[in-house]
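User: I'm writing a tutorial on reading structure tokens. Could you give me a worked example: one chain, its sequence, then its tokens, then a sentence or two explaining what the tokens reveal?
Assistant: Sure. Here is the example chain.
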Amino acid sequence: MRNLIDKYLNDSIDDIEIERLKVWLENEKNQTIFKRMVQSHYEINLGLQEIDLDREYSILLKKLEGNKTVRQRSYTTWYKIAAIFIGILGLGYLMHMITKNTKEIYVDENTITIRHDNGSMQVIKEDGSLELLDSKGNVIGKQKGSQLDYKNVVDEDSNTTVNESLTYNELIVPNGKRMKLILSDSTIVHINSGTRLKYPVKFITNQDRKVFLEGEAFFEVTKSKTNPFIVNADKIDVRVLGTKFNVSSYPNDHLVSTVLVEGLVELNATKDSEKDDEKYLLIPGQIASWDKSINNMQIAKTDINEYTSWINGQIIFKVRPFPEILKVLERHYDVSITNNYRFLDSQQFFAKFDTETIEQVMTYFQSSIPFSYTRVGDEIIINEP
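And here are its predicted structure tokens:
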């Protein structure tokens, strides 16, 4: 949660994260933690710069209400605003504003959650089961264990009214977790750690089947000649009729990659990209890598197992740079890894892991190139040997 609070204070928090912060702050103990962290940051970062408190107070209220038009603010300034705001108005009022119109439920940041179309959040317990309801109380989906099913609910309940307008749910899978999703058209989506997928509760006949991905997922798309299936990932749309493919589009990765297992896919940039007129076709066994920094696409042959093994809980690295490996390990094991041994940044490794612990994984890399590391809770720090 420290990461979310830092993002909030430096104005880099997104809509989903602010929802998580809101529900976390409903717990009185968490409010005390929040206050202590903000006060600590205030003492460290507050300078003598003059600021217009009334103006900054107004901006902060808009931020808490989700006003997306508020301009970006500097890291230090947001620390000042938050600390002064707490000092003058008191933490109680801040809690009132942050938790306004939020469903009274504690949501741990390490739990799988669903964000409904009305903004409410629902916790998914991996060892439990539940029914998902729409605003009218109709069952729209059922969850059992690590599977979430929207298709068979419609089949079972013939009295369910067909909605002619798209209603979206968003599934949020944190680091260290995975989920299987069955969409209303029977398409199966395997969702990897640290991923958000926004999708219609029910697709509409004779319209594109479009979902929005941030993170990584493997799609087994049900064939339809009249309704293309589109995955939007950053500035790339992956368009198919029926096929199996993997898409990886994490915010902190510089590449958006698509690996085709079977069928045929078409990739094209969305309208806000500089290369929106270029299209790319993939055949099975190929990977398309879109460099977000330069808007450039590269297509090459690849071993699909390296990019799809995560579905079965495995991790395969075939000559992968160490910085990329660390990102995968952080998501898979839900840890934070800091590398202070810069020599490792230029090294590449081949490795395969299945049921190993993170300690066993670190030992494996140590046997190849010696280094030292310490672990405190979920934080791992790598240093020179």
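What the tokens reveal: The radius of gyration is 23 Å. The mean pLDDT is 80.
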